[in-house]
Structures are given as C-alpha cells and as structure tokens.
Design goal:
Blueprint: E1 2-6, H1 10-23, H2 35-41, E2 53-62, E3 65-75, H3 76-82, E4 86-94, H4 98-114, E5 119-122, E6 134-137, H5 153-160, E7 164-175, H6 179-196, E8 199-201, H7 210-224, H8 235-245, E9 254-258, E10 264-272, H9 275-281, H10 289-299, E11 302-310, H11 319-333, E12 338-345, H12 349-355, E13 361-372
Parallel strand pairs: 4-5, 11-12
Antiparallel strand pairs: 1-2, 2-3, 3-4, 5-13, 6-13, 7-12, 7-13, 8-9, 9-10, 10-11
Helix pairs in contact: 6-11, 9-10
C-alpha cells in the first residue's frame, strides 16, 4: 500500500531533502545538493519565491519506507500576471514504480482542482531561475549544480500517465576555442567596440561586482520579458540571489558591457564547475566540504555558462563578440579547457547561434511534461 503525507516538521523536511541521497547512492553522475541550503530554499521565511508562490512537499511511503517525493507549487505571479493557470511540480524523485509516481502526481491534480487551474507541468521549480526539466538523454554524463539528474524511467512514468512534452532544453559542451577559431570573434570584437563606443567591465574581486548586480538583474528582466513563461525577478529575490550565489563565482567570470554613458547593454555569468567537488561534500559544507568547493572554484578546468543577456535593441548587433573575446582571455589565463552550456530552450535560435562557431556537442536533453485537466 502506498501512502502520501505532507512534509511539515523539521524531520520530515530533512527526509524530503535526503531521500535522493539513498536513491542515487553509488551513482557517479548524480550531484548532491548542500542539505542546509536546500532546506533554506524550502523555508518560506528565507526564500523570497514564497512571496508569490505556495508550495507543499509530499513524501510517498510503501511498507513504511520512503519511496518518492515531490514539491507541488503554484506560482501566483505566473497565474495572475501571465494567465498561465498551471500547477508546477518539482524536486521529483521516485523508485521505479509507476503507482508511486501516480500517487505523488495526484497531489498536483488535487491542487489544480482546488484552485480551478487548468494543467500540471514539471519538473520545474518556483521560478525561471530554478532547476527545470527531467533528463531524457545523457544519463551517463555527470550532472551540474544547477540541473536535476534522474533515472531513465522517470520519462516513461510521465508518458504512461498521459503527460506530454511541453518544452525541451539542450545542454552542450565545447572545448576552449583555438586561436584560429577565436580570430574572427576578436576581429568582430574590435569592430563592434568602435562602432558603438563600448567598453567591457572586468573584475578581480567579488566586492567590486556588487554595485553592478542590481543593474544586471534589471537588464535580465528586460531581456527575458519576451519569453512566454517569464515572470520578472523581484528586488527581494535579487537580494537573495546576490547573497546565495555571487560568492560562489570567480569574479573574473562575470562580464558586463557598457556604452559610453555607462549604460549596461549586456552581461554574462559563468560559474566554475563544482560537480565533482559537490560529490565529495556528500551534502555537507562542514567540517571539510567547503574546502573541496574552494579548491574547485580556483582550480577547475571546466566552466558553466549560466546566464547571458543583451539589451533588446542591441541584440543581433554583435555584442556577444565582445563578451566572448573577454572570456577567451580569462579562460586562457586560468587554464580552462571545457565550456558547458546549461539548459537552453530548443526554440531559442539566437542563443544556439551564439555557440555555432565553437563546434558544440549536445550531450544532454531534458524536458518538462504537461497534462491538461
């Protein structure tokens, strides 16, 4: 018999966060979260996503043993501002038993019926800046800190239960370009700077980045507003992300482009790959986990392209050449060998074109599934 209970107490939330540690034990591709940070992200008094969202966390048990989990979320900003009347589900993990999956997703159905919403979509988090999608290709590739890993049967469960593909994301990687490959980019960089009187902003310490971050998120909101599912990031969310993530980034890997008046026209954030370091932490920063992360931040040979944005009126005018030229210098100086693209929508042709000269290899695909009620 399968029973579903809502996790509310401290112990139950710990069980929720730690269930995947057992499910993926010994799996060389799964990347564990930092347990305390994951718990904080589910705390409505800490995570500003709860300003516009409600979430419930469910555990599935069979014969008294935890066999699955999921978060069921309604992002009310998405419902009320965009008219997308959906329930999200995320942080979905389950044993290979479709009846457990069915029982967990029934909680999403219940939420949709309660609020008279139209469909269920997932896996996805609270907002656009959370992890998204179930892995459908690339099960033998190591995950990243900003994606979920899962077993192949997840996709099969969703499809057998009547869910269909909604959106698809691609992940790819490429080697640091050779001097020959980068030469046209460097040439374009010089031309674009002269044409629009641009300057690139680089950093050597985290403290100097902070005055730019608010402007970066303003540009982020403007850049991504055209996406059908985008909800703007609020001031409190910006403060939360600054505190949570900026310190994890090598300051040399944040780039801004400004015009002659100091207006920000483009930005890009690249993060060091912490996958192997996170595996060594086993979900805990102390007593030694943080040392693995610090070492990786300085010495990793892989980086993740996390966010990139260009002022709408400057898109298709070559500003990405300025960004890529600056990264090439930084990567070469730091011995970076491999660049990884984090999930990008298959339909986003402009971002696909950005990498085409670097011979990217698609190594993972993921998608969200939807079911209309």
């Amino acid at each position: 018999m399968i029973t579903i209970t809502e996790a509310k107490t401290k112990k139950e939330m710990n069980d929720f966060v730690q269930f995947p540690f057992g499910l993926y034990k010994g799996n060389p591709y799964w990347i564990p979260p930092i347990i305390n940070e994951e718990l904080e992200s589910f705390d409505s008094s800490v995570n500003p996503a709860f300003e516009h969202a409600e979430a419930h966390f469910f555990l599935a048990r069979k014969e008294g043993k935890i066999v699955g989990r999921t978060a069921v979320i309604v992002n009310w900003a998405e419902v009320n501002q965009l008219g997308k009347r959906k329930v999200r589900f995320g942080w979905f993990d389950v044993i290979d038993d479709i009846e457990v999956t069915r029982a967990l997703l029934e909680k999403a159905h219940e939420m949709a019926r309660k609020h008279n919403l139209d469909n269920i979509e997932g896996p996805m988090g609270f907002s656009n800046l959370d992890k998204v999608g179930v892995l459908t290709e690339g099960f033998d590739e190591i995950g990243t800190m900003i994606t979920w890993y899962n077993y192949p049967y997840y996709k099969d469960h969703f499809e057998q239960l009547g869910f269909v593909k909604e959106k698809e994301w691609l992940e790819s990687r490429f080697k640091l370009p050779t001097d020959e490959m980068i030469a046209p980019i460097l040439k374009a960089d010089a031309m674009i700077r002269r044409r629009y009187n641009l300057k690139a902003i680089n950093f050597t310490n985290t403290k100097d980045i902070m005055p730019y971050v608010d402007r970066m998120f303003e540009l982020f909101n403007e850049t991504y507003a055209r996406l059908s599912s985008f909800v703007a990031v609020s001031d409190t969310q910006i403060a939360y992300f600054k505190k949570k993530y900026i310190g994890m980034i090598n300051p040399e890997y944040i780039k801004f482009v400004e015009d002659e008046n100091g207006k920000m026209l483009a930005f890009c954030i690249v993060m060091p790959s912490l996958s192997e370091a996170l595996q060594k932490t086993k979900g805990k920063l102390f007593p030694f986990g943080f040392l693995h992360l610090l070492w990786a931040k300085k010495h990793t040979k892989e980086v993740l392209f996390y966010l990139i944005g260009v002022q709408p009126e400057y898109q298709n005018k070559g500003l990405t050449a300025v960004i890529m030229a600056e990264y090439y210098k930084s990567f070469k100086a730091n011995g970076i060998e491999t660049c990884i693209r984090t999930p990008e929508l298959e339909e986003n042709n402009s971002i696909q074109n950005l990498w085409k000269n670097f011979n990217p290899v698609i190594h993972k695909r993921r998608r969200t599934y939807i079911k209309h009620l």
